[in-house]
Amino acid sequence: MLNFYLILIGFVAGTIGTLIGAGGGFILVPILLMVYPDKSPELITSISLAVVCINAISGSVNYAFKKRIDYRSALLFSTTTLPGSILGSVLVGYIPRNVFDLIFGITLLGLCIYLLIKPLKTESHHSNNLTWNIWPIRRSLQDQQGNAYSYAYDLVLACLLSFIIGIAASILGIGGGIIHVPVMINLLNFPVHIATATSHFVLALMGASASATHWVKGDINAVLSEILFLGIGVVVGAQLGATLSHKLKAVVIIRALAVALGIVALRVFWMSFRH
Questions:
Q1: Model-level pTM?
Q2: Of 254, 243, 64, nearest to 141 (Cα)?
């Protein structure tokens, strides 16, 4: 019965995670913390990051056919995201479970407040005006449906933020998309649909590097069955999420998720103080 629930959890995480380009780790980790109260942060994050990687690969295939992935930007971001994710995978081993729960709860609550106050911009708000102008990058894309996108961002700011996100996401096991997507849209001027698709591709690369680090450390060997059943669910859910991504309003989705994050944060706080 637990295996069925793991598949169902994976399906929900895969659908929602791919829908907003977040990978689903921010859904998986709090659920895993409740399902496995005795597992260490290393095991929890190793499960989540491996499943996020599977989800991101599955969703990226769908987004690739839609021609919404900015591959050049994704590879540039990965030059700092990947080292950050490896560093985070090592650091998580030094964090006690109760401290991990507290840090994760604070992160979720912060994301909840931020996304409620300042949800993602709509397509009409992105521009070529740069926040920084040290190393400007200008990009133009056209997706499968013929929609044209033109935007600009500063590479130095993008890589600095990607490194920080890589560390934080790997420590928390959330993959980073729930942080990366708002950053790409609100600070780097990416259109919503390009941000979600490109973030998903970066997640696939980051999840693979972080999971490889956990594999070398021996963390994944103890949780292979959990990864397998969750992975089955996310593969199916990722396809549904990518299909729905252009049919639903991103702002509505983000606000609904913000409320859910707040509820989960309170639950994680309660678990942290109970230990």
A1: 0.77
A2: 64
